[in-house]
C-alpha cells in the first residue's frame, strides 16, 4: 500500500487511509445507527434460561451470585428477582455480545393452577373439597370432603380465602395467567 501511495496521487492515498479508519470506527457502538445493543432487545428476540432454583440455600445463591432462594409471591414486593443468561435468536441482528445476563427477572414459576377454575370449583364443589384437591392440598381436602365442607362453614371460608388471595397452590407456584 505504501508503494501505491508514492506512485499515486497523495490526496487519494490519504482519503483511502481515512476509509480504513472509518471501518475501524464501525466497531464502536453508534446509538443513532440502525443496530440496537443486544442486551436491550425485547424478550421476543432472545431466549433466556429459567432462573436457577437454589431451594432455600442462601449460600449457594451467594456463591453463584444469582438464582432464586424462593419462588412466587402474590405482591410485587414479595417476589424475588435475579439475573439469567440470555442469548439472541439466530436471525436477529444487534450490536455487542450475543450472550449476556439479564437483570431483574422475577423468580416466578407457573404450573397448571388457574385461579378462575379453582374459584369455580370452590363455589360449585367446595363442600366436597374439590378446590383443595385442585390446589394440591390433599390432607385438608380429605378433611373437607368427610365433613362436607365443615357443614358449609369451611366451604364459605375457602371461597373468601381464594378471593382475597390467601389460599394459593401448595407447590408455591403462581396462578397461571392464561386460561
UniProtKB/TrEMBL annotation:
Bilayer disposition of the protein: Multi-pass membrane protein
Keywords recorded for this protein, A-Z: Glycoprotein, Membrane, Signal, Transmembrane, Transmembrane helix
Species assigned in the record: Ooceraea biroi (Clonal raider ant)
Family recorded in the similarity comment: Belongs to the TM2 family.
Keyword Transmembrane helix: yes
Signal peptide: none
Protein name: TM2 domain-containing protein
Transmembrane stretches, start-end: 114-133, 145-167
Primary location: membrane
GO cellular component: membrane
Amino acid at each position: 500500500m505504501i508503494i501505491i501511495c508514492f506512485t499515486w496521487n497523495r490526496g487519494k492515498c490519504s482519503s483511502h487511509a481515512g476509509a480504513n479508519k472509518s471501518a475501524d470506527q464501525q466497531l464502536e457502538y453508534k446509538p443513532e445507527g440502525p443496530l440496537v445493543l443486544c442486551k436491550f432487545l425485547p424478550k421476543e428476540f432472545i431466549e433466556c434460561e429459567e432462573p436457577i432454583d437454589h431451594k432455600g440455600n442462601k449460600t449457594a445463591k451467594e456463591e453463584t451470585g444469582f438464582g432464586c432462594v424462593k419462588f412466587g409471591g402474590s405482591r410485587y414486593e414479595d417476589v424475588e428477582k435475579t439475573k439469567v443468561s440470555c442469548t439472541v435468536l439466530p436471525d436477529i441482528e444487534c450490536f455487542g455480545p450475543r450472550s449476556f445476563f439479564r437483570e431483574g427477572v422475577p423468580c416466578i414459576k407457573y404450573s397448571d393452577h388457574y385461579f378462575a377454575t379453582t374459584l369455580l370449583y370452590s363455589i360449585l364443589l367446595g363442600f366436597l373439597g374439590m378446590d383443595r384437591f385442585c390446589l394440591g392440598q390433599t390432607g385438608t381436602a380429605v378433611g373437607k370432603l368427610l365433613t362436607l365442607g365443615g357443614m358449609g362453614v369451611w366451604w364459605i371460608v375457602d371461597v373468601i380465602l381464594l378471593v382475597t388471595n390467601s389460599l394459593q397452590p401448595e407447590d408455591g407456584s403462581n396462578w397461571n395467567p392464561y386460561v
